[in-house]
Amino acid sequence: MVVGVGRAIFTENAKSAVAVPHRWPCVQFATAVAGHFMKTVLPYLRTYPESLQDQARQLLGQGQLGAVLQRKYPQPHAVRSDKALYDYAAELKSRHLRNAGTVNKVVFDSKIHVVRHALGLHTAVSRVQGNRLAAKHEIRVAALFKQVPDEFLRMIVVHELAHLREKDHDKAFYKLCEHMEPQYHQYEFDLRLYLTHLEHAGERLWAVE
User: Fewer beta carbons within 10 angstroms: which end of the chain, N or C?
Assistant: First the structure.
């Protein structure tokens, strides 16, 4: 399953969050910007209101989008291996989805190309075991996300875990995501801002040795 579209934003003060109509996120506002950036297509933000996209374009025009994200999320997560990622996902599942299906494998996958594609993938292969049908669940997270803040990794893992119970990206699915991570939509939006920064600046913000 491809990670679905969120509904949260940035605030004018990057350190604080505020309630906004329809729960869309807020981008820190920048004033002057090169005109050509206001016409730039932002594929990672295409489902968000045009006003938010314009604010992101302004930050891109000033070369400030990456700096704003780094101020808000100064540190990368500490999950460095597939085993650590499995344990990370297992802890979240144990806390929120104890009675859901078993996750057999959780790995970082270098074959997932984030641009235009998925942030993570959840797969379920059904096999006959004795007299019953059993599903083997695997979660794969794009290797790019070895070097992002914990909030971004948690949002992706929460999304994929939610598919253990809800298959479609519907109201029940996003309600479950919010149950597991109340800031789910904000983190998804900010992650999409980071992908927008990567596409235009080509600079990773949380490089890990």
Answer: C
Sign of CA dihedral 111, 114, 116, 117: positive
In CATH terms, the superfamily for domain 82-179 is Metalloproteases ("zincins"), catalytic domain (3.30.2010.10)
Contact 147, 208 (CB under 8 A): yes
3-state DSSP assignment of residue 125: strand
The conformation of residue 132, written as its DSSP 8-state character, comes to E
- The domain ranges of the chain are 82-179
Cβ burial, residue 138 (10 Å; 0-12/13-18/19+): middle
What would you report as the CA-atom Rg of the chain, rounded to the nearest whole angstrom? 18
Which is more confident, 3 or 191?
191
Average predicted confidence (pLDDT) for the chain = 79
100 pLDDT band, cuts 50/70/90, is: confident
